[in-house]
Amino acid sequence: MSVIVPVYNAEKYLNKCLMSICHQSLKDIEIITINDGSEDQSLSILQDFSQYDARITVLNIDNGGVSKARNLGMEQAKGQYVTFVDADDWLELTMLEELYQACRLTGSNIAKCDLFWHEAEGSRQLYYPSKTYCTYSATVCLNKLFTEIGEKHFGFSCCKLYKKFFLDSHRLRFDETMNFAEDTVFLTRAVIKNQSICYVPKQLYYYNVSNQNSLTSRAMGNLRNNYDLLYKKLLKELRGGDVYEEVKNSFLNYQFEGLLVILHQCDAKPQAIKNAIQSFLQVYPDVLKVKLINRKLKQFIFLKLIKMNWLTLSSTLIYMNVKKPKVI
Predict the structure, then answer these.
(1) What percent of the chain has pLDDT over 90?
(2) Residues in a beta bridge with 149
(3) Whole-angstrom Cα distance, residue 193 to residue 187?
(4) What confidence category does residue 292 fall into, taking pLDDT thresholds of 50, 70 and 90?
């Protein structure tokens, strides 16, 4: 098995991440680390760890983004299975073994577990009434991918195990032209090609959302342009895979979430928010037809106000009281 770890300025978290990989219950692994032009001590830490554990390979490249780093890792990987770990995250010590067993027992090309959404106040423990593996169809996976956030979030390339032959045979790689939500496009392609995912009902991956210097957080600059590119690429994949109509409402939920994120990042002045809403709906008018899934009451109210074209100070104030959503 090959564990691919892109690294960018992760010196604060790297020891914990690598220790959690090196001490996995599954020992027959290679650990491919890619230093993506870090400006801190990350490279030195990686080199020290490679002396401590011969399974670690260190690749040092100029900064090119997380997609380029992951793709390089896949090209170098020799394992039958591949997984991705972000350098500021860490794993339960049985994660690799449990996902590997799930793939072996079910014959699936992809296995997924849940994660701990790790923040300053701690992580939420989920309750699982059943420990049995289940297999989700492509349509179910995509509906979950576009609507679930938090601990059960499908949209991360991490917390999953992939059969390398499957990735290679379909030339499944990360889009190096993207620096935002590239995971979602990669997973959409993979799910459509595979038609299923094996789900392991456990939290085995710790996702660290407190690191503001990570590879992901650097992409928050021009959100609207990033979302425009993301939706364009996702629509191409969904329509090319003849699944768009089956997942349309879930995809509209995904676009609605994008609108919320954009509004939370824009100027808090009512006129700026009004302009942002109008600009978004001009390009994505079908968002007004969405049937919201897994949403808070205030978000239902806000959508209703938009439908009524009541873009006034009062609707803005209602919106600004909606809790800031997780970035998807």
Answers:
(1) 70
(2) none
(3) 10
(4) very high
Closest Cα partner for 302 from 284, 288, 283? Answer: 288
Kindly state the tokens that stand for 18.
């690598």
Separation of alpha carbons 304 and 324, rounded Å: 19
User: Which residues lie below 8 Å from residue 218, measured CB to CB, with a gap of 6+?
Assistant: 179
Question: In whole angstroms, how far apart are CA 44 and each of 3, 35, 187?
Answer: 19, 10, 32
Residue 98 CB partners (closer than 8 Å, separation 6+): 113, 200, 202, 204
Whether 187 contacts 154, CB under 8 Å: yes
pLDDT tens digits, one per residue of 216-240: 445 555 899 999 999 999 999 999 9
User: Coil, strand or helix: which one is 217?
Assistant: helix
Q: Is 94 exposed, middle or buried (0-12, 13-18, 19+ CB in 10 A)?
A: middle
Taking Cα atoms as reference points, which of 240, 156, 250, 252 lies closest to residue 197?
Answer: 156
State how far Cα 141 lies from the chain centre: 14
Alpha helical stretches, state H, 77-149: 95-106, 138-147
Q: What average pLDDT does this structure show over 282-292?
A: 95
**Among all chains, which residue has been given the structure tokens 């011969």?**
54
Element housing 112 (H / E) = strand 110-118
**Residue range 158-187, pLDDT digits in tens:** 999 999 999 999 999 999 999 899 999 999
In this prediction, residue 117 has a pLDDT band, given cuts at 50, 70 and 90, of confident
Query: Using an 8 Å Cβ cutoff, are 158 and 205 in contact?
Result: yes
Specify the pLDDT at position 151. Answer: 83
For 313, the 3-state DSSP assignment is: helix
Would you state the structure tokens that stand for residue 230, as one six-digit string? 């993301």
Residue 31 CA to residue 42 CA, distance in Å, equals: 15
* Residue from 279, 291, 299 nearest 251 by CA: 291
The pLDDT tens digits for 22-75 are 999 999 999 999 999 999 999 999 999 999 999 999 999 999 999 999 999 999
State the sign of the Cα–Cα–Cα–Cα dihedral 213, 216, 219, 224. Answer: negative
